[in-house]
Amino acid sequence: MNSRSTPAAWLGSLDGCRLARVLETRRDATAVPEPRSVRELADRLQRPGSVALALPRLALPHLQVAEALAALRAPAPRDALAKLLGVADDDTARELAAVLESLADHALVWPDGAERLCMAEPLRQAWDAPLGLDAPLEELLAGTTSDELRRMLVALGVKPPGGTSHRLAALVEHHSDPQRVLSLVDKAPAVTRKLLEGRAGAGPAGPARFIPFGRPGADVEAGARWALDRGLLIQDRHHYGPARMPAEVTVALRGSGWHAPFQPVPPSAVSASVTPAEVDREASAAAAAFAAHAASVLAACSTTAPARLKSGGIGARELARIGKAAQADDAVVRLTLETAHAAGLLARDGDRVAPTEAYDAWAEQEPPERFAVLLQAWRNLPLTPTQARDEDNKALPALAGAPPCNGCVQARHGLLAAAARLPAGQGLRVASDLGPLIAWYRPLADSSPDGPPFATVIREAELLGVLARGALSAIGIHLGTGDAEGVGVECRRLLPSATSTARIGADFTAVVTGTPSARLALLLDSVADRETSGTASVWRFSAGSIRRALDAGHTPDDITADLAAVATGSLPQPLSYLIADTARGHGRVRIASASCVLHGDEPALLAELAAHRRLAKLGLRQLAPTVLISRSPLDTTLAALRAEGYSPVAETAEGTVRIERVRPQRAGAAVPAPRGSRAGGGGRIAARTAKETAAFDPNTLANQLLAAPDAPDPAPFDGGAPFATDTEEIVAGWAKRLPYSDVRQLAHAIDAGRAITVEYVATSGSRTVRTLSDLDLDPPYLEAWCHLRDAERVFTLSRIHSVMSVAPE
User: Is residue 519 domain-shared with residue 640, that is, in the same domain?
Assistant: First the structure.
């Protein structure tokens, strides 16, 4: 075996710069605790879970090359791969070399130093039948008796040699010659020839047509029998399952002109010239509109926290209510709620979803900073938020807590990658034409369930100003590279600052162009009713809205002064009259809670209330010229009088005016804490993860790994090297299925309070992949918050079969 045929040997042969590229590409394998040797790194890179994370990030030609190599049963000669892919010119050869280099950067395919290509075993297992090819003849004939091989050779007209191995070699040699196979099939009965050609043509694009046995139909059985007698089809010796066609036979029947698909160049799309200024203008308008609507949506949630369905999530009725209050359509509402939740601005609070304390700080920021927070959350959002209906056309709730969708994340990343590679100064005439490009860059990403491919994620990008005029905007360029600082700079350049003034008209309206500042929006919301939101917001003053401000403790002079301070000119006289008239009638009647007592200084007004027909349900009775009592509670009486146009105020038990200031509901934390003693731990873990990500240096780690000795893993009871911590020793003693690399990661997660992903096998035998946090070791058990079940669970250490750190993107 060549010294580089194993992943550890190949990684150890790389220089520091080359190994650093692998570490940068496969960040999940470098998560803390960092690997301490090349062998441990190779072990992490070859884990099925780690390979599964890398696969969705590969472009179409990478997957095509990997599938072809899997069909060749790597290690395979590089020339054989080129031949299978039909590489016939220098340009295609260079493109193949670039693809192989990228696959090596992912540590999925690597050269062994002898012109052969090796492949990670989990990658080979990604295809049951790569290229629609079954196993080679030699593998399918394993366990076949010498007499059965002799009969096949006789049927082929080949003199059988002595010995089982020689007979098997003779049969393999015969079927490895395509001309012999084609000549043999030409002599077959018509039904057999049709059957074999159909099987060979199934290929990777469609399922193989398996041949049933034991069913009625003598022609089919006779045709299959002819092929079985000559080794063109192989039946399990126990007659279990369908007959299988050896790979050599399939390739021969597909013809000499057949090659494995290889599309190294992305598909073309109709483009049009577009200037950076045009892209900036459209992106700025879209981003500003979304930022304004998002502020309105979250403000509506702050005023009245949306209720959750019993089955989880926010249903259509609540979404419609929020959309009406914020003057935003359903797509904007869903997109805002999901991104705000991911950013920690919203959280579940009992049977509602309420803003967190982080929302209050966010609302005080300028629109560019607010928008950047939501935009960064959208980039790695593990779902497609604006997908409002499922495959059965049933309405989907928002914030439903569905399992993370890696394909949705990759669809978004594929959009950013595809748009970034459009020629400079060019945009697509039709934005939906980006769908086939996304499919080329991320073939395994989730597409739109209906309509053009990736139409939903493209529409989201347009709503956010990431995509404008069919081209990637400046915001989208930095978002695609993961440059958070660059995203912030472009948001500040393209989005206007908050507007702190309003144009107040004589028609009792206040118009704010752009996004109102938090202070301005709070003031206008307190004294007027919002009618529209977006690039321009409109509030309308009324007696009811002014009374609401007076009820909250504001005086008429305060209201007038505050509005004058934000008005672009002097306050219109009609508005001043409205404020004065409403204030004049405000508090003329006072209601005391004696279940309850109404009193005032005007006997005529109290008499009017007592005689009012529509207030008869309150059971009002006059005790004195200035005193009434009510059989209804204080709040009911207060609401009834206001509904009839009066302006009463409530008193406290001490006889002072009760201030009716509504305190917005706030959720305690963005992530539910499973134990009271650990409340807030999720935030600290997230902060540590971000700090560790920023400190990661692939070059330093690469040099450390290459210089480190490759010591053997410690074993719990064989006198091996000592464990680094007591937790490692305890975990290793109980979780006996885990290699030392996994033991280290699990023990570190327990000690450091980090989240971890595990493959767990339940007592029923079912396998699940779970992300756990708030780990508490209680041998032989592990108590943790399970994000799959959204609840606290107890896990048996011996049933944990593999571990992988939760690494940031």
Answer: no
What does the DSSP assignment read for 503-515?
Answer: EE-TTSEEEEESP
Give residue 17's identity as a one-letter amino acid code. Answer: C
Instruction: Compute the mean pLDDT over every residue in the chain, rounded to the nearest whole number.
Output: 86
d(CA 28, CA 25): 9
Do 555 and 644 lie in a common domain?
no
List 355's β-bridge partners, or say none: 346
pLDDT surpasses 80 at 140: yes
pLDDT, position 641: 93
- Backbone φ and ψ for 13, nearest 5 degrees, come out as -85, -10
The Cα 315–Cα 320 span in angstroms is 9
420 with 474, same domain? yes
End-to-end, the C-alpha distance of the chain in Å comes to 36
Distance, CA of 745 to CA of 747 (rounded, Å): 6
- 34-44 residues labelled b (16+ CB within 10 A) or e (exposed): bbbbbbbbbbb
Contact of 156 with 167, CB cutoff 8 Å:
no
Q: What average pLDDT does this structure show over 361-367? A: 90
| Distance, CA of 409 to CA of 381 (rounded, Å) | 6
* Alpha-carbon torsion angle 276, 277, 282, 287, nearest 10: 80
**Whole-number Cα distances in Å, 669 to 37, 221, 426, 673, 682:** 39, 67, 45, 8, 9
Report residue 232 as tokens.
């063109």
Q: How far is CA 801 from CA 44, 515, 692, 776, 804, in A?
A: 14, 52, 27, 18, 11
**Residues of the domain holding 610:** 588-650
Q: What gap in Å lies between CA 499 and CA 475, rounded to an integer?
A: 22
Distance between CA 76 and CA 54 in Å, rounded?
22
pLDDT class for 255, splitting at 50, 70, 90? confident
Q: Residue 463's pLDDT is what?
A: 95
C-alpha closest to that of 180 among 235, 121, 120, 230: 230
Of 416, 468, 456, the residue nearest 437 (C-alpha)? 416
- Please report, as a single letter, which amino acid is at residue 45: L
pLDDT per position as a tens digit, 448-485: 776 788 999 999 999 999 999 999 999 999 999 989 99
Does residue 359 share a domain with residue 447?
yes
Question: Tokens in use for 562?
Answer: 């505050």
Give per-residue pLDDT as tens, 282-307: 999 999 999 989 998 998 999 899 99
Could you tell me if 466 and 472 are in contact, meaning their C-beta atoms sit under 8 angstroms apart? yes
Mean pLDDT of 16-31: 92
The answer to whether the peptide bond before residue 118 is cis (omega within 30 degrees of 0) is: no
| pLDDT interval class at 115 (50, 70, 90) | confident
C-alpha to C-alpha distance for 50 and 57, rounded to whole angstroms? 12
Mean pLDDT of 133-143: 88
Q: Is residue 746 part of a domain?
A: yes
Give the span between the Cα atoms of 707 and 254, in whole angstroms.
Answer: 50
**Residue 415: inside a domain, yes or no?**
yes
What pLDDT, on a 0 to 100 scale, did the predictor assign at position 653? Answer: 79
**Which contiguous run of DSSP H or E holds residue 794?**
strand 791-796
Which of 494, 517, 537 terminates a domain? The answer is: 494
The whole-angstrom separation of Cα 434 and Cα 414 is 10
Bridge-partner residues for 759, per DSSP? 769, 802
The identity of residue 171, as a single letter, is L
What single letter denotes the amino acid at residue 559? Answer: I
Cβ atoms 137, 172 nearer than 8 A: yes
Does position 617 have pLDDT exceeding 50, yes or no? yes
Residues near 696 by beta carbon (within 8 Å), at least 6 away in sequence = 27, 30
Residue 597 and residue 545 share a domain: no
- Split into its structural domains, the chain has a count of 4
**535 or 99, higher pLDDT:** 99
- Is-cis flag, bond preceding 33, omega within 30? yes
- Spatial CA neighbour of 322 closest among 336, 338, 306, 309: 306
Of residues 739 and 318, more confidence is placed in 318
